[in-house]
Amino acid sequence: MDRTPTDLAVRLTIINPVAEPDSHANGSERFPPAKRPKSLDNKTVALYWNGKQNGPDALVRTKENLARQYKGIKFIDIIGEKGGTNRYLSEEQLDMLKEKADAVVCTSADCGSCTSWLIRDLCELERRGVPAIGYTAAIFDDDAHFSCTVFGVPEAVPVIVPECFSNKTAAEIHKMVDDAWDKVIDGLTKDRKVKDELPSFEGMVLEKAPELHFEGADLMDAFEGMQRQFIKNFWSDGLPLIPPTKKKVDAMIAASGHDGDHVVGKFAPGMGVGTVRKIAANAVMAGCRPDHMPIIMAMMECILEPSIGLRTWAMSTGPQFPIVMVSGAYAEKIGMNNGICALGPGSISEVNIVIGRALRLIMMNVGLSYPGITDMDTIGTPNKFSCVVAENEKRNPWDSWRVQQGFKPHDTTVTVNVPYGMTELFDFQNSDPELLIEGWATLSSNAVGSPAQAVWLVKTNAPLSEGYPFHGAFSNLLLMAPDHASVFSKAGWSIDDIKQAIHRKTRIEFRKAMINKSYDGFKTAHPELQWLLDQPETMVSVSPSADCYEFFVVGASAGRSQYCFGGTNSVTKAVKLP
Asked: Which residue, of 9, 63, 376, 575, is most buried by count of CB atoms within 10 Å of its CB?
């Protein structure tokens, strides 16, 4: 039924929670695409593999086709120097390709984060004047073109193939390369027209207006209109949102200790300009109160730390989720739950839940991590809605978590770790710590289905400051039930004793560790360990060192801990109270 103007008696005005991407801002960096050669006769083409499974099959076919089509063509075979299952080009490699290659064919973009990293390499090559194309699965088309815009070369060339190369036979991959061949040649030999306008993407609605208005017959009608519009615009996490009115947002800004226009940082993957006002608006939508804001601001510092690799896990096809751990008196002051159902659900965990929900909404509306474009999770997980706990310090028999991390007892800290998954460590039986470790090792040794477990076998370390996680300083986190902590403590075990014991026990046959990994990647990363190929039953450690295990005491009675495997390195920041 159509409404007359008199029916719309109420207007709901809210603060716009969606950030402007840095690429849309005045003065943002943008680079023209490289000039293409008219022919590849007598040219040198680099065939670049980023470590993704089955990528070499695509490059083998590419080399065969190019060799048939062009006279005197020469090739450079190259694999990214840094990373693990997803590798990327170093500055030295990029400079070498600038000097020696006339064009580059890259593969593969067939998961969310690897698409972003491959497009990063394409754009870096284009910026250096080297034409490049990258094989990209069709489902990652928008993801790839969005990344081209983020990295400053919207005209860069993802060559779209119908399916992922992963889990395909060589014959299937060769056919996809052949079917896309005209696009490959066009991308390498035809100059790219500079776009007058930046591309837009279905499922990503950007809005510059500082305030948004929703009208209705009454406030509930206007509220429901806001909910419908947010879902339509992809700004919602799927649950009802609290309207971020100016009064509520201003109270959150005041609690932050900063002006509303203060820029906290640029949030990957969309490089949204994260002002305090945008952060506050999303926190209000999640249900947060002003006294939660100091925790939220420390949480922002954690995810903006380059070493945690926000862009990688925000875009991944993997079900990675941020788990937030708060240690200190301020957690208790604001009512955080550290006991029964600390991870929810229920009213007793309300503060935990809304703070975690705020992080997800900020990732979406400030970082522009939207499902289908920049969040490409294959299946997803409810842990991505909210996963926040506080330390049960009264039942922690060791130093508090914050003291273990180098902070003072009077501090309150926030830590973020981003695991792939969580599974229960159940043990009501044992008061012997060795037996607890043995039971735990049945979980930690058999989690190699996660890409982070045993990834050291195919990985080449790089500085954590470059923003790619899993460079060796990653953490498998145990949310340790107090009853389990008591078993270790009564036996006189220190935190380091537990780390060393679980590391010794967490081993698996080399052959099993390599089931989901590329042997080409192993040969590149560890030429000194090639003897393992002839002794595949040799037991190898799942993690590179004992420092890859951490323990956070939380929860109530009964021996049920939670093992969070395949996490990034943990990043801890102090809470600043205004």
From this structure: 376
Q: Which of these, 92, 124, 358, lies nearest to 239 by C-alpha position?
A: 358
Distance in angstroms (rounded) separating the CA atoms of residues 426 and 440:
9
Q: Assess whether the previous peptide bond of 116 is cis (omega < 30° from 0).
A: no
What CA–CA distances, in Å, run from 158 to 118, 186, 433, 482? Answer: 9, 12, 53, 51
Dihedral sign (CA 172, 175, 179, 183): positive
Say how many CA atoms lie within 13 Å of 20 toward its Cβ.
Answer: 13
Question: CA 471 to CA 405: how far, in whole Å?
Answer: 20
Looking up tokens 């550290």, which residue turns up?
Answer: 338
DSSP 209-222: -SEEEEEESSHHHH
> Which residues lie across from 48 on neighbouring strands?
78, 106
How far apart CA 260 and CA 272 sit, in angstroms, is 15
* Mean pLDDT value of segment 53-72: 97
Number of helices (H), then strands (E), in the chain = 19, 21
Task: List, in order of start, the domains of the chain with CATH numbers.
Answer: 44-189 (3.40.50.10350), 216-506+542-574 (no CATH)
* Residues listed for the chain: 578
What is the per-residue pLDDT across 19-43, written as a single tens digit (0 to 9) for each?
999 887 765 688 999 999 999 999 9
Alpha-helix residue ranges (DSSP H) falling in 257-326: 276-286, 293-304, 310-315
